[in-house]
Amino acid sequence: MTEILARVAPGGTTIEPGFELVEDGLAARIDPARPATVRAYLPAFDQLTTGQATETVREALGHLQAFGLRPIGELRTRLVDEADWATAWQEHFHVLHVGRRLVIKPGWRRHSRTGDEVVIDLDPGMAFGTGLHPTTRLCLVALEARADRGPLGRVLDVGCGSGILSIAAVKLGGTRALGVDIDPIAIEATLANARHNRVGKRVRAREGSTPSDEGPFDTVLANLIAGVLIELAPELANELVPGGTLIGSGIFIDREPDTRRALEVAGFDIVGRWFESDWVALEARRPG
Ligand code: SAH
Fold this sequence. Notes:
This protein is of the alpha/beta class. It has 7 helices and 14 strands. The strands form 4 sheets. The protein has a 7-stranded mixed β-sheet, with helices on both faces. The chain has a 3-stranded mixed β-sheet with strand order 5-6-7. A two-stranded antiparallel ribbon has the order 1-4. It binds S-adenosyl-L-homocysteine.
């Protein structure tokens, strides 16, 4: 199919394989059993030329169908405005209000800060964590609520991704934050985003996980999947001062009982719960 389309499309073609969401919806796995989409872009100088090109392709795809390979869907055509190609995706990202006073703002949007709003400038980019995912949002809401009740102190952010939680933590009054992540791209993203938000001096990030060997912290944030939270529960407790707070997110609702149990076995008292659709975040306190 790409060969047929490439005959009329000088810019080449793209293949988007079918995929399914795995790891509690946090990752995608290519599923060859699902339909793939093949796309090609043609210059639309005049309707006659594009019309002819479309017909040529439709005919050739018909011949290909005769070989009895996998079924080929309808050829669909659509006129796209060239000027919009590079930036069309930006349309989908708006200023986001999270919790009572957090605002997540992509670089290309304007926002005038009002009252006690805390604005985080963040482009949806390389690493996970644009504030769009429910697990991140839940963590932010729990963090804000915790900050409203007293100082966050020193913060550890396990699985920092884009650094959104570390940045939010220091902007909400945390003295310093350390982000750790097993993915080196996340470290680059966290450092760049922290600088961009003018909190580069208070946010550090490095490759790693728990134990951080830099504890104890007053607050630990961990937006990881349930399985990892369960596995790390004892180490997360060790990172905290007595009386310190853990905010654990990324818990798919059917894993909540297991996660609670693991946190309690590690010595935590569960003191708060937030949920959105099928996701849960828990606030746990290490007894003082
Ligand atoms: N904190 C960000 C990103 C959460 S995604 C947010 O809330 O939006 C989870 C991140 O945890 C990913 O960047 C992943 O690389 C990292 N991660 C997964 N397992 C980890 C582990 N065992 N230790 C440290 N980081 C881990």
